[in-house]
Amino acid sequence: MSGSARPSHPKGHPGSSPRSHHAPARKISTGSADMLRAVVMAAKKNKAKEKEKGASRQDEDAVKEEEAMAWKLLSLTQINILLEQDIAGVQSYMEMFLNMKEPLTSLKQAVLLDYYVSGFWWAKALEFTPVQLGGLLTLLNMLMNNIETQHMTLEDNIQELRNAMAGIGRRNSEKSGGFEFFTVDQAKAIINYLKISIFQHYTLYEFLFYTPREEIVLGDENVVELVKPADSPFPAPLEEGLANNIYSKFIAQIPGEEDATKEMEGGVPLEEEAEAETIVDPLTGYTIEDVQMVLGQLTGEMLSGIQTEINERLQTQQEAYSARIDKLKKA
Fold first, then answer.
1. 288 has a pLDDT exceeding 90
2. Which of these, 66, 118, 186, 322, has the minimum number of CB atoms within 10 Å of its CB?
3. pLDDT by residue (tens digit) across 52-63?
4. How many CB atoms lie within 10 A of CB 274?
């Protein structure tokens, strides 16, 4: 019957047999599945690598953010230079890095230089890393600026230190002051150091910044009298040794002081005549007795005046004592 007969297909036709029609489809789906699995696995690996890179970048950024507070005052290169120096070298380089030009004459610069050098040397002795050394200097600078510019009281500055130290020893803390590169023990040591360095002398630092000081220039003026050139054969005597009028009259006579413009006598110039004449000693006509006589007269005049004055004072005192004695007798 036609209704029950099945249609015949030629051999090899896709519809001739169900097995021959579906077998190639199974092979294609299996290969594509393997390729898809390989693609998915590669994509997962790439995502994992990207996540690792992103995490490493985040870690690097976090480290940079944590170390940012360490380089507010000095750079890493400057810290490494200071680490190679002795105490004198640290002071010299610190003057240059902080632009202190007059530490020997400016009290303010001298105090600040000692403040920073002492803090650096203390931290170096505790073997702080360069990052920690830079952080300590930043912390010291922050506290000192609070005194100088912000005019903070001691209590307010201690609160600022507490806020800066927040987050040390804790990871991913909400309250962070940016100094997480310190350990808890180092933070305790820093606080103890700040107690004896800045907080104990807080009033002195306030006086340093708030009190104006006069610049006193110390000097000494000395008047030096130079010896006059010797115009006469003998230098001028002391006033108490010989009176000026006697010296001028008898001693200070310089030979050859005649005016050179006088008329020439006998056609010979006066200068040549003076050279021809022998120089005469002005004291030639005086003997030792004459000098003794003159000195005796001067001494007698001086002593007579002194004697008269003494006698007058004694007489006055004698009269005063006599009057007192008469009053006592009458009483």
1. no
2. 322
3. 665 555 544 444
4. 14
Has residue 102 been placed in a domain?
yes
Rounded Cα–Cα distance for residues 105 and 140 (Å): 23
The per-residue DSSP string of 156-193 comes to HHHHHHHHHHTTTT-SS-SS--S-TTS-HHHHHHHHHH
- Triad 131, 135, 139: Cα angle to 5°: 175
Residue 119, both tokens: 């803090």
Find the domain containing 138 and state its range. 58-210
Q: Is 273 helix (H, G, I), strand (E, B) or coil?
A: helix
User: Can you tell me the distance from the alpha carbon of 239 to that of 218, in angstroms, rounded to the nearest whole number?
Assistant: 36
Torsion, Cα 178 180 182 186, to 10 degrees, reads: 90
What is the rounded end-to-end Cα distance, in angstroms, of the chain? 194
**Predicted confidence (pLDDT) at residue 175 exceeds the cutoff of 80:** no
Residues 6+ apart with CB under 8 A from 89: 82
The domain total for the chain is: 1
SS3 54: helix
pLDDT of residue 263: 47
Distances (CA, A) of 180 to 71, 131, 251: 14, 11, 95
In a domain, 22, yes or no: no
Is residue 86's pLDDT more than 90? yes
Q: Is residue 163 part of a domain?
A: yes
pLDDT of 191 higher than 50: yes
The answer to whether the beta carbons of residues 223 and 126 sit under 8 Å apart is no
187 inside domain: yes
Alpha helices in the chain (DSSP H): 18-67, 76-83, 87-97, 107-125, 130-148, 154-165, 184-194, 202-210, 244-246, 270-276, 288-330
Tokens coding 151: 């005019």
The SS3 call for residue 258 is: coil
> What is the CB-side half-sphere exposure of residue 33 using CA atoms within 13 A?
6
Q: What is the C-alpha separation between 89 and 156, in angstroms, rounded?
A: 35
Burial class (CB in 10 A: 0-12, 13-18, 19+), 108: middle
Percent of the chain whose pLDDT exceeds 70: 64
